[in-house]
Amino acid sequence: MFTERQIEELNKSFEKATPSEIIQKAFQLNDNAVVTTNFRPYEAAILHAVSKVEAKIPVVWCDTGYNTPQTYKHAEQVIKDLNLNVFLYVPKQTSAHRDVVMGIPTVDAPEHALFTEQVKLEPFKRAMNEHKPNVWFTNLRQGQTAFRNSIGIFSLSKDGVLKVSPFYYWSDEKLDTYLKEHNLPNEFKYFDPTKALENRECGLHA
Q: Pathway of this protein (predicted)?
């Protein structure tokens, strides 16, 4: 268990560090780790960076069931190219079934909380309960949402897991260069059914 003081010291020490240095430090602190992904834009960077340090790290993919065909094709390519150790988690109800009984509610609809719980939060909780990680690598970046602007490279999840965002201070342009240098694909045709706006927090992190 980490204290807020330790988190502050880590963030100060590693503010200028490379993603690789940050990832290596996290593994030194605790090697019981997972990396989560939804194969949204720029996810190939975090998956590449973490798997270069630990090739067999569990990659937790929580698929809402509403991804675009382009995202699914992109996911398959990245999984194959990086030889990822993927653990797939999906909602207990199919999207076809949910489309009939609920559809995709708007963010201000009463059903939206239940929808988000079904397609995103429950599969994620199930994944974390099964893997029980002490370290959670994610591709959160400054500037994405108000909440993410406040957390830093290292932060603590609601359950006390050390959350590590190695690309926290990176811009899209810098990530574009990283992807190009490492010959990694990217895909922008991505859809998150729980968010009406790009800068809206999805519920996993806040």
A: Sulfur metabolism; hydrogen sulfide biosynthesis; sulfite from sulfate
Nearest to 168 by CA among 135, 139, 203: 139
CB 71 within 8 A of CB 191: yes
Reading the block at residue 99, the tokens are 């489309």
The CATH number of the structural domain formed by 4-182 is 3.40.50.620
- Cα–Cα dist 96/155, whole Å: 37
* Cα angle 7, 36, 34; round to 5: 65
Please list the residues that pair with 176 across neighbouring strands: none
- pLDDT-based confidence at 149, cuts 50/70/90? low
Kindly give the residue spans of alpha helices, DSSP state H, lying in 132-198. 172-181
